[in-house]
Amino acid sequence: MQTPQSAFKSALVVSLALHLCLLLLWAPSTAKPLKKVKEDVVVIKLNEPKEEQEPINIQKNQTLTRKAPATQAAPNAPTAEEWAFASTYTLKNSKGYRHTWGKQVRSMMGTAGEGPDQGHVRFRIEIAPNGSITKVETLWKTSDKAEVLARKAIYSMPPSPPTPTGNPLIFERTISFTPFATDDTPIYSNDCLPDPPAFKNPFAWDGKSPQEIKQNKPAEKLSPEALAECLKQLPQDSIEGVAAHNQRQFEQW
């Protein structure tokens, strides 16, 4: 007598065998034949390489034009009238004398051309009361040639008139040896106005002294008598001076 477990196994085997037979009989009748894939033939034709053509040189038959370097001729030397005015003008640390002296130096340096030799040089100058040079110190420079030419001109320039105040004149002066230098003719109409005081930080503290806010000193005003005497020295500003002043203001802004 079969047990329930053996009867279940026998039934399972018979069922699987029956399903397998039915699957084998049904599959061939329902399967669709595979479509034939159409084969495309690609033909590659190689052409013989063509001879390379030389590139057309557009500039071969054209004349190249080069821009000429810029130049600026040296200014004319100061006239006797300019030196006469400079030797008597005492305002703003002998402003007229300093400008005329620098113009004399630049007039003896020749034409400035665009290139590696162009540049600027700034000197600290000391002039004795009789007009002779006592000290020339180079503060900075951007061109060795500019310094060489300027020093040569300083030590070979004609004797200068005595200083306006009768005292040694000490000042700094920049000599421009470039073709793009602008006119530095000064104007004198504002020379009677007091110089603004040098700014000092009112909150600066040395860490030791008592802390306090220091007030900057106001500009000193001239008395009416001194102002009237000062105005007598002011010359009429030249057209060149006004134009140069306006150009400097325009470049600053």
Characterise the protein shown here.
- With 253 residues, the protein is an alpha+beta fold.
- Among the domains are: 70-181, Fusion Protein Consisting Of Minor Coat Protein, Glycine Rich Linker, Tola, And A His Tag, Chain: A, Domain 2, CATH 3.30.1150.10; 182-195 and 221-253, no CATH class.
- The protein is built from six helices and five strands, in the order H-E-H-H-E-E-E-H-E-H-H.
- It has helices at residues 4-30, 80-86, 91-107, 144-156, 224-231, 239-252; strands at residues 71-72, 112-113, 119-127, 133-141, 169-177.
- Strands 4-3-5 form a three-stranded antiparallel beta sheet, covered by helices on one side. Strands 1-2 form a two-stranded antiparallel ribbon.
- Helix 2 (80-86) packs antiparallel against helix 3.
- The longest helix is centred in the first third of the chain and has 27 residues, at 4-30.
- The termini are far apart.
- 12% of the residues are buried.
- The model has no long low-confidence stretch (mean pLDDT 84).
Descriptive key words:
alpha+beta, Fusion Protein Consisting Of Minor Coat Protein, Glycine Rich Linker, Tola, And A His Tag, Chain: A, Domain 2, three-stranded antiparallel beta sheet, two-stranded antiparallel sheet, 5 strands
